Amino acid sequence: MNPPDTTSKEHTDMSTARDPSARAEPMIDASEASVSVERRRGHGIKLQGLNAYYGKQHAVKNVDITFPANEVTAIIGPSGSGKSTVVRCINRMHEEIPAARAEGSVTLDELDVYAPGVDLTAVRRMIGMVFQKPNPFPTMSIFDNVAAGLRLTGTRSDNLRERVHRSLRSVGLWGEVKNRLNEPGIGLSGGQQQRLCIARAVAVEPEVILMDEPCSALDPIATLRVEELIAELKSRYTIVIVTHNMQQAARVADSTVFMLDGEVVEHAPTNEIFTRPKDERTERYVTGKFG
Amino acid sequence: MSSVALPKVSARRRRTDKVMRGTLLAATLLALVPLVLVIYYLLKQGLGAINGNFFTQDPTGSFFGSVGGVRSAILGSLEIVLLATVISVPIGIGVALYLTEYGNDSRFASVIRYFVDVMTGVPSIVFGLFIYITLVLAHTGGNFTGWKGSIALALLMLPIVIRAAEVVLLLVPASLREAALALGAPRWRVITRVVLPTSASGLITGALLAVARAMGETAPLLFTTAGAAGLTFSLSQQMNAMPLQIYNDILSPRQVVVQQAWGLGLTLVAIVLILNVIARAISRRSRVG
Amino acid sequence: MEASATTSGGGRSVLERSPLSRLPDRALPWALTSLAALILALIAYFFIRLIGESGSTFSTFGLSFIFGNDWDVSRNIYHGLALVVGTLITSGIALVLGVPVAVSVALYITEMCPRRLRGPLSMLVDLLAAVPSVVYGLWGVFFLAPKLLPAEKWFANTFSFIPWIGGGASSATPTNYFIASLVLAIMILPIVSAIAREVVATVPSENKEAALALGATRWEMIRIAVLPYSRSGIVGGAMLGLGRALGETIAVVLLIGDAPVIGKHLFSQGYSLAAVIANEFGEATGVHRSALFAAGLVLFVLTLVVNIIARAYIARGARGARGQRKGGDAGTAVTAQGSVT
Prior knowledge:
The complex is a heterotrimer of chains A (291), B (289) and C (341). Chain A contains twelve helices and ten strands. Chain A has 291 residues and is α/β, with parallel strands linked by helices. In chain A, the strands form two sheets. In chain A, strands 6-7-8-3-9-10 form a six-stranded mixed beta sheet, with helices on both faces. Chain A has a four-stranded antiparallel beta sheet with strand order 2-1-4-5, with helices on one face. Chain B is built from eleven helices and no strands. Chain B has helices spanning 11-49, 71-103, 107-120, 124-136, 146-171, 174-182, 187-198, 200-215, 219-222, 242-250, 255-288. In chain B, helix 6 packs antiparallel against helix 7. Chain B starts with 10 loop residues before the first helix and ends with a helix. With 341 residues, chain C is mostly helical. In chain C, helix 5 packs across helix 7 (177-201), helix 8 (205-213) packs across helix 9 (218-247) and helix 11 runs antiparallel to helix 12 (286-320). The relative contact order of chain C is 0.14. Classes of the chains: A alpha/beta (291), B mainly alpha (289), C mainly alpha (341). Chains in contact: A-B, A-C, B-C. At the B-C interface, helix 1, helix 2, helix 3, helix 4 and helix 5 of B face helix 1, helix 2, helix 4, helix 5 and helix 6 of C.
């Protein structure tokens, strides 16, 4: 149930040093074994021996990563290093691609996501996802976009409205859209669309939010907004973010994973990976010598 | 105990999903039922009708004795459709060339495109009426003749050829055209030496599909070639054709004649299917190459 | 329009070609353009001639040619409501029967079936379009109509309380509105399905992934991400199918019963515009022939309107796909598909 000691310890040390006040709560989370009310807020994800393929191509090779609860973990690496594939394996979106398959274990706490008989629909309900390109449903209004997931599970009207409003508030979009909830979601700016997509993912109250390069299609100001949002959301969710932008990883992530050619090269607290990486390849990447 | 459990997907949602998957599959199988039945009955009834005389004699059309064969129908169809192809394919490719090489996005080109689209939706019987009014009523070169049928079919084939040709001509990379132009080749030579050869297989595919469509059309021929039992090679006389012969046979009270219709129906479907298969094979090869 | 590489030299003689060799480059665009214009002119000419030939009918019967219900050759009275109604009824039922199946097939092929089966399945459905209509007529007359007659009678008896559907059990004949509609449904299935397939294939994968990532089941994904996005394209495809059904002649003339009355039941005989032309043309002269031309004109205008609406829907569907593909591409592909099937 707990992340490996080394990671969490290193990590808590680091983050406490960096920002004691913000990290206090998750620090207790990660080190306490007892189930408290706080503890229930988030759940960690653990990948063990994960392999993923596209047809014959071996895209992810024997990956072990632990994503601690209520923390932001960034995955960085050059294009084609398998970072997006790893994330898509967590909520089993990977297998939606024809001829793609995955082996190994992904556990949400002790729950094996790949166990036989597991309902894909339930897995994805628990593990939300935000995509590279903002993808609001083009035929739906702002309100309907956020409500889409809730409606699937049969949430009724009063409750539905309240939860949609709350989700829009939690992504900081409420003030901007409250007077035009019935306008199409694709009428918003790129940054707003992406926050709408985050609101859509948050509305169903998942345990984990996966973000696959969520800012790569956004301008710097919209990017900043989304990054602030990520920092707020981690008090309630476990967040995994794939990014090709190392500054972004440095700004938002508690710990960072560096991947290369489908393998994990290094996983360490973020400031460590950027200041004193253990692996030479990591150093060359973070200093911009390749990739 | 794990502190986390997967949310229950409600039984209703699961059931709906299963039911809808089942429904879509069932609909797909249902759609194939008529195909299987048509082909099964064509084979069952039609193979019996094909005997020694089937391809070598002409239909007698008499109410007694031998019904003869269907030679004049097959040869008539081939002749009429051949002439229709000779008319429609060059014109169709010409118009497509105008659209892709010269018209592009001009207003006139979009008007042409629009009308060609609309033409695909004009019922084939209306094309028959057009030709009847303009050529048969006017007694241009006789009343009902084979060549008038060819023109009606050509009108029907034209939009198919134009649209198919436009799609493949657009696939010729602009860089290829520019490369040839940059060598100093005049535009018409670029078209004849580069554009047309590059897209030849696609053009042939489009033409074959149009031929297959024309082969099975009955309505336009009713008013233009009118049908005749005997064999003729002259396109300026009334002519027999496969769909006409089948149509007339269906209306006959004689069981043997109906039997002949099944045999001819089988022959017609076989020809149309072979044309389709060849067309697809050519287009597949060109895509791979 | 001129190749710039060959004329960039201005007036210098080295770079100038002889007027004779330049002739084809002048002539070709001119020739091709006039070819295209010729086709437009031809359609216009045909249309005008058709109006001219049917003019006497409209001047004699006026609007009652369409709205009057009395088609009697022996008295030379041609009020064709029964034909118009028969055409609309059979095409309407064909849509009701055919479109749901066609769209289901398209959804199954694009979203559910194993990848390996996609090609073969599409090809089989397309083959339905390769069967000539006279062969469908043959099959309908000698197999489908007699085989289904007992089932139709049972249906009419069992549901005799439903107006128009029931009550006709005793008078049910092998050839009737329903059987003609059923064969029309089979005939329009491939084109509607092919266009629906094209349109559904343009739904961006991002939208589908967004639905799945929310925890939607496969069907829910289709419902919230695929169908709303492709709706107008599917409507356009259905309208094209309607156009086909309205104008279909040979299968209908063999199966509808050819009675110039408005049938009282689903299983009664009737007539259609195209069927009356094909059936009565042989012996028609004078006013009768003009009336048949008028029927052709009504049919032509009807299909024209339906096709224009269909194209508008499909174009709107293709515009919806803009950004994923180049503007016109989806529309062009759809049209090509539509015309080859």
